[in-house]
Amino acid sequence: MDWHQLATQLFPEGQDIVEHEHFLSGSAQVEGKTVDVIGTTGHVPIGIEIALSQARAILRTVQEHPGRPILILVDTVGQRLRHRDEMLGINSYMAHLGKCVDLARRKGHTVVGLVYDQALSGGFITSGLIASSCYALPQATIRVMGLPAMARITKVPEERLTELARDNPVFAPGPENYLRMGGLHGIWQGEQEGSLAAELSRALADSPVEDVRMALGRERGGRQLAQPVAEAVRTGSHVRPA
């Protein structure tokens, strides 16, 4: 979905979002309250410039508008794979962005992520996936790593990974599988007029304070051991087989 069309559906009360070199920023009205919006478009890979732009926008909200909700619109093919970005330490820039999102959450800002097109790799992990809650549209493409790339790295044949992906959401792309794993809090259908605006309003009102992704993954059958293992590490206890 084009971001202009998306913004029209999300913010019927008005918005002033602008695009600059695939970086989105601005504010919008949701039920009479202001929400700051940042994001990306055009399937752009996240290089150091966009990572810094997003981080700067989040810090500006934290400094100038304490407690104001933040919506992150996600459309990216992941971090930019260029020698220049690697030499400049793209990993540090991505980590900085993630820390800024975490800071906003700790300072009382509700941060909601929405994958409206593509969400791949580190560009998703340090934005929408680290938000207070994250949602997606049904047609969104979500994956941390494609099966061909996973096969090359793990040395597991792609045919075997494809077979595993049929039953195990950890190996499979798509919003439905990330919903099962707890990475997404929900999928917004947006089929009826005004439905996306209503979904956003509910998400802003109901966004959890604590990170409940592991609990959601266990409840939905997508990640059975993540929560028990984390709890065992925290308490020094043993994990009991399911």
UniProtKB/TrEMBL annotation:
Name recorded for this polypeptide: Biotin-independent malonate decarboxylase subunit gamma
Lyase recorded as keyword: yes
Gene name tied to this protein: mdcE
Keywords: Lyase
Listed Pfam families: MdcE (PF06833)
EC class of the enzyme, as a word: lyase
GO molecular function: lyase activity
Domain of life: Bacteria
InterPro entries to which the protein is assigned, alphabetical: ClpP/crotonase-like_dom_sf, Malonate_gamma
Signal peptide range: none
Gene source species: Massilia phyllostachyos
E.C. numbers: 4.1.1.88
